[in-house]
Amino acid sequence: MTTLSARFPALACPSLLHALAAPATVLALALPMVARADITPVSPAQCARMQSGKVITSANPVPCSRLATVSFDYTDFDGATRQGSVVVLDALAPQVEALFGELLLRSFPLAGAQGLEAYDGDDQRSMAANNSSAFNGRPMTGGGGWSKHAYGAAIDINPLQNPYVSKAGSPEQEVLPPQGAAYLQRAPLQPGMAEDVVSVFYEHGFLVWGGQWKQPIDYQHFEIGSRSFIQKLASLPKAQARAEFERYVTRYRQCAHPSAPSTASAATPADDDAPEDTRLRDQCAARLRK
């Protein structure tokens, strides 16, 4: 298990040794929150639960042996710290761990995050519960092949605040979940809306945001590049696939932050106070995801 205090030293407690000598009640008040994150392979027992929960079958393009569970702390809409998890392709897991760590540091709220087996693989039930999730061995909405969720290469966040909209603007318009219709007006931004963290997903390799699609519009949905790239990662051994994905992330960051010094953090621009160049961000994402 790793902690965000290890990844981000500012979260560490400078008086930890002194606090450890204090009574338990004082210790609980003195110690800051230590955010926890963890990556574990999907075990045979977990795989069996996913199978019985209608989340994966033997026909899925990626087997359980290539999936990993990323567990993390997150902030809920009341400001409390909760624990959640998503299942993703193993090659993506370190970046997904860092991604959710960044959401926590930004206090970006999530309503919940648990596997689709809790909803019998029913995407609409998961959306109705405002559940953030990743892996689901299902076809694309509307048919036409496997969803990128079936590869563990897509993440949905806060479906209520970020609804799926089909046939937008027409008499046949459908909003999922239906309560998400209250959030079709995207400005001003409200807590939990995806627009606030598009750059975070891009910085960790999820270069496609469904909120930019024309039809349908899928505000909750982020995925990595082309289907052929995802299939390549799934076909490579885990270590090789992970290295390939890390190169992909690095190429995006070098493109999006060309002036950042090599000694600066790869995940952030050189000037944290500078406004984000969204045009350059989207140009770099479009170039790499082909």
From TrEMBL:
Residues 258-269 have a biased composition (Low complexity). Keywords: Signal. Residues 142-224 form the Peptidase M15C domain. Coiled coil: none annotated. Residues 1-21 form the signal peptide. It comes from the Bacteria. This is Peptidase M15C domain-containing protein. One of its GO terms (molecular function) is peptidase activity. InterPro entries: Peptidase_M15C, Zn_M74/Hedgehog-like. It holds the Pfam family Peptidase_M15_4. Residues 258-290 are annotated as: Disordered.
